[in-house]
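# nightly structure sweep
# worker-07 picked up a monomer target from the shared queue
# config: single-sequence mode, recycle default, output format = structure tokens
# input follows
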Amino acid sequence: MKGARTGTGSVDLDADPSENTQRWARFVATCLIGGLVIGISVLGLHFGAPHQPSLRIWRRKKKPVRVYMDGCFDMMHYGHCNALRQARALGDQLVVGVVSDSEITANKGPPVTPLNERMIMVNAVKWVDEVIPNAPYAITEDFMRKLFDEYKIDYIIHGDDPCVLPDGTDAYALAKKAGRYKQIKRTEGVSSTDIVGRMLLCVRERSISDNQNHSSLQRQFSHGHSQKFDDGGSGTGTRVSHFLPTSRRIVQFSNGKGPGPDARIIYIDGAFDLFHAGHVEILKHARSMGDFLLVGIHTDLTVSANRGAHRPIMNLHERSLSVLACRYVDEVIIGAPWEVSKDMITTFNISLVVHGTVAEVNDFQKRDCNPYAVPINMGIFKILDSPLDITTTTIIRRIVSNHEAYQMVTIRVTPPSEAPSLSSFKRGCEG
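# output follows
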């Protein structure tokens, strides 16, 4: 058919040859322009703003920064936890070395808490990603190489307080020389030595008459560390801590997340004084009962009224920070009431109230005023078997026993003129 076309760019066989040539030229030009536009678009995708997919791939492949921090972590307190929090902030993953019992004994004196309990404590800190047991007290060449090669550690972290070996050398000298050392600020207002002093003062009244050594040591703590009392200095009240809590520090320790709309909220309360492995294990057990663990921390006055004038050893805010640092805890009530009321259960939407079988005060069911009467009547109260038989009193007894053992050994090998001082005893208690 005359003038028939097969499509764009087709040639009319009956048309004038010059007209066919022009049509062919237009077809070729269209293809060239189209190809040029597509090419520019592809180049734009590669070199322009769409570089982001490549950046995302690079970020995915980026090696996480792994930092290492070691310590004795004996009688672990919120100062230790804050050090671990600061160390974790210097990297993406925190590996913690827990020094062996034998290394602590050789360098500082016998530990108050054995390795297995110290491991429980460190593993429970929410900023810790991995734990190495039986770490050496000093960073040796071989161990440092193991950290770098096997554990892929980028930096070794320690506080700004000096760590000196018995021979007077710096325990982190090799890490500093290798250029792989970073330093964090020590938490002010708390030390293991101060806590030991509080414990010994706690037992002063009953030990003063039958053990002059205890009394003497307690006086050294009292005079040397300016211990004060909240009852005007009579020695019958709770010690005033040097710790000054701030809202910023509490926020740093807090999870910042509340329970979901259908969460099963578990509530457990107590003093949680001298936070120890027994506390950690019962909190872990309680958390397994639901989706959200709410912990009530009793006031200092409540603890004193139920456990004696010299309790608690740690004040309310110190105890709250230690509990907040535990990975099994979602939220705390700072200054929780002794009695669990219906209003409290409704306000916090509590599903179950629990209590451990091991506690300083465990005769609540025999009292006229049972603090758990309301949840018991509501059918939402449960007794949990405590995994460890450890209490605050257990820790205090260990301190006294360690001091007795230390003095007996030293007296046998040391002239009277060189009797053990407070400073020498405290080295065995620093963590």
